[in-house]
TrEMBL record:
<protein>
    <recommendedName>
        <fullName>S-adenosylmethionine-dependent nucleotide dehydratase</fullName>
    </recommendedName>
</protein>
<dbReference type="GO" id="GO:0046872">
    <property type="term" value="F:metal ion binding"/>
</dbReference>
<keyword id="KW-0411">Iron-sulfur</keyword>
<dbReference type="InterPro" id="IPR058240">
    <property type="entry name" value="rSAM_sf"/>
</dbReference>
<keyword id="KW-0949">S-adenosyl-L-methionine</keyword>
<keyword id="KW-0051">Antiviral defense</keyword>
<dbReference type="InterPro" id="IPR007197">
    <property type="entry name" value="rSAM"/>
</dbReference>
<feature type="domain" description="Radical SAM core">
    <location>
        <begin position="16"/>
        <end position="241"/>
    </location>
</feature>
<dbReference type="GO" id="GO:0051539">
    <property type="term" value="F:4 iron, 4 sulfur cluster binding"/>
</dbReference>
<keyword id="KW-0479">Metal-binding</keyword>
<keyword id="KW-0408">Iron</keyword>
<dbReference type="Pfam" id="PF04055">
    <property type="entry name" value="Radical_SAM"/>
</dbReference>
<dbReference type="GO" id="GO:0003824">
    <property type="term" value="F:catalytic activity"/>
</dbReference>
<dbReference type="InterPro" id="IPR013785">
    <property type="entry name" value="Aldolase_TIM"/>
</dbReference>
<keyword id="KW-0004">4Fe-4S</keyword>
<dbReference type="GO" id="GO:0051607">
    <property type="term" value="P:defense response to virus"/>
</dbReference>
<dbReference type="InterPro" id="IPR051196">
    <property type="entry name" value="RSAD2/Viperin_antiviral"/>
</dbReference>
Length: 316
């Protein structure tokens, strides 16, 4: 996940959302150990372990958000629903992940994944063709020592690098028709002076999302607003698809599902989560009520965020 971490809503048109996004943190497991990761749920009883439970969850979400006519749909006026698989690292799950992806597609969702990229080329499985509408790959530094210092490295010392990133984007663009590609970069004390311009322009991305490191991990990697602004300004005016999100705009939670299959939100800060019961047990509407979900607040938060910066969405 991650700082990869999380959000949720997308493009708006004159008072309506085109796309409503549900962020499912399908697993806590990850092969990396980023210093700033807050995808921690304390070894949850992860719902994906049962394919029947995955299908039940997807059915409930599809019946409510896609085929139903709930208040949230009437108010937000969205045209489609995207299920974003986040983690942890969703591609660590082996066959359960592509199965969930195919099921989600069959049930009418648009699909996306936020990944650290390490399994895109070296995974035990290939993503089924044409099952993914969007991919978000986390990439924080072009320098191996910096990625290692940030914890973006596995136990064997492997760290998803520039060449792998280029190959993975190229490969996915061939196998996933109409795929939108996005890179997420968390700007911190170790990379804020890096110039990503040549790399990003070479990738033909739909979006390069840059996020200021949130104050949840090691404080020595935090940067000032001025440093973040300087990073952003260095990359402006070069035709890059940059979308910047500072600390000030990364405050509220969105519609998120944890690995247990519960809605959760963090309306008062990262450490103050409230959780519903399992959606598969109580249904979508009851679960939403249990986290006091309010679509008016959701909508106003969406517009506040998107008027103050270029966009908003998850991290890996
Ligand atoms: S890659 Fe994402 S989920 Fe994994 S440790 Fe890093 S931030 Fe956390």
């Amino acid at each position: 996940m991650s700082s990869e971490n999380h959000l949720v809503v997308n493009t708006a048109t004159a008072g309506q959302l085109n796309e409503f996004v549900i962020n499912w943190h399908i697993t806590e497991a990850c092969n990396y150990n980023c210093t700033y990761c807050f995808a921690k749920w304390g070894k949850p009883n992860e719902l994906h372990r049962s394919l029947g439970a995955i299908e039940k969850l997807l059915d409930k979400l599809a019946n409510y958000f896609i085929h139903g006519n709930p208040e949230i749909k009437r108010i937000l006026g969205y045209q489609s629903v995207r299920l974003n698989f986040a983690g942890g690292e969703p591609m660590m799950l082996g066959s359960a992940f592509p199965t969930a992806l195919v099921m989600a597609k069959q049930k009418g969702f648009k699909t996306s994944i936020v990944t650290n990229g390490s399994y895109l080329l070296r995974g035990r499985f290939q993503l089924p063709p044409n099952t993914l509408d969007m991919v978000g790959i986390s990439f924080d530094s072009q320098q191996h020592p910096v990625r290692r210092e940030l914890g973006r490295i596995d136990r064997k010392g492997n760290s998803f690098n520039i060449d792998e990133l280029k190959l993975a984007v190229q490969h996915l663009s061939h196998t996933q028709k109409g795929l939108k590609t996005k890179i997420n970069t968390v700007v911190n004390a170790l990379n804020w002076e890096e110039d990503f311009s040549p790399l990003i322009s070479s990738l033909s991305l739909d979006k390069w999302k840059v996020l200021q490191l949130m104050p949840t991990g090691r404080t020595d990697f935090l940067i000032s607003d001025e440093q973040f602004t300087s990073f952003v300004e260095r990359h402006l005016g070069k035709g890059l698809p940059i979308s910047a999100e500072s600390n000030n705009t990364m405050t509220e939670s969105y519609l998120m599902i944890d690995p247990n299959g519960r809605f959760y939100q963090n309306s008062k800060g990262m450490s103050d989560y409230s959780y519903s019961e399992r959606i598969t047990d109580v249904g979508v509407e009851t679960a939403l009520n249990q986290i006091s979900f309010n679509c008016h607040r959701f909508m106003s938060r969406y517009y506040a965020e998107n008027s103050s910066n270029i966009c908003g969405e998850v991290l890996a």
